[in-house]
Amino acid sequence: MSLRDTNLDKLHGGSFDVLVVGGGINGAVVSAALAARGASVALIDRGDFAGFTSQESSNLVWGGFKYLENYEFGLVLGLCRSRNQLIRAYPANIKEIRFLASLDRHAPFSPAFAAAGATAYWAIGNLSTRAPRLLSSERISREEPAVDVSAVRGGIEYSDAYLVDNDTRFTFGFVRNALNSGAVAANYVELLDATFDPRGMWHATLRDTDTDGDPFVCSARVLVNATGPFVDRINTALGIETRHHLVFSKGIHLVVPRIGRHERVLAFFDDTGRLFYVIPMGPRSVIGTTDTRVTTPVTTVEDVDRGFLLEQSNARLVLPEPLTEADIISERCGVRPLVVDATAEPTDAQDWTALSRRHAIEVDEARSHVTIFGGKLTDCLNVGRELVEIVAHLGVPMDEYRPDWYGEPPQTTRAEFRRRCRLMKLDRLRKRAAFETLTDRLWRRYGLRAFAMLEAIRDDPAMAEEVIEGAEYLRCELFYAAQTEMITKLDDFLRRRSKIAMVMPHAEIAASQGLREACRMLFGTQADTRYDEYFVPA
DSSP string spanning 109-120? Predict the structure, then answer.
């Protein structure tokens, strides 16, 4: 029986302290935080974990430099503290990175004024990163030849942080932590309905969307709506009234071949005065994001989106050849869920662009219902802590605080892992150059679980082979993923547990000789079905 099947069995007729609906970053962190404090938790998502908004981020962990423009000092202070805490807790996964912002005539600030803002930002962040610098256009050209400085007045360099891997992998780490602390979690489980009885229990009707099975029921003392951009829709269905609601901004990213030699983020103001970035992703670069007002959470990349980003990038970069649609390896598209008062909504461009990615939490104490509005990856630990306090206030007993509910294993454990890798000469097994060693990658992605992979490689050297050529994914990783990562569909693996679909062209993935073997390892007798779901149009 698979891990998902085991958890589905526990959901059927199960009774929990808390049912968390939505497995994006908010739901995953809340589940891990509550389970670590001894609450019995069930986590569901109607798709895959991190399968919607949480898979479309810029992979940045930042304090919100741009929010200083709107004088949101409290928000920036809180985000900077969260960023610093995440850097300390996840040293292999979240790293400081330099941002180089080139300021041309479209930039709303002069280089000197931007440098003053960067200095204030550095101070608000407790001086915990490298100091900012004011740069001349000549200095920018020398240090980053990929930037066209012909129209640049100057620039600044400052620090924030980024995810070395990807947002979905980071989110799933919290799901894994929740499972390790005793939570029940299942992807592809939809909430059909929920009722609150006079005895103080929610009775939720659920359905397995992967098999289209019969509805079943579980119960919980507290219901948490963590469905991201769908929170208003769920609340309306359940009859929950709130003081806030969401509006949406669509953002897209284009993944292209690597731009620039240095591991830094290039920042520019587009022709409308909005920021966009060129962000490193291993052998690739991610260009984005846009900011387009939309009325629905479900969006797609349109020709005008691609054309705009390509045009803006080509105008500001020095490239061997201009970027075209043929250079696009993959695309990311999602909405920012922006929190506004239920009685007010932005009515003009200024109000719209001034909205920040703050979160808001509302509690219906009479019905033990909690709604999480908005938020972003950087703020995730704060959301988890707030929910623990709220759920405790609603009457669910909590154990003593456990500081190990998030973060990587201690440095001594990492040193022992590296020692064993050296003894095995693990990094010599790689046959071609890569952006990081096997030692670093296995530790970053799996932590303590990487020790078992070393044992598997020692017992069978074939476990260190790449199954999908060029994907930088080993056979032992696939065996581990099949057993412990609740991969239900091929997209879960290619897009979310890994980033293969982001950095390899679709045609190369389809032509891979090893993909069928990967499907057999992940899905067993359902291998052909899952393959066809992904590659064969309906």
Answer: S-HHHHHHHHHH
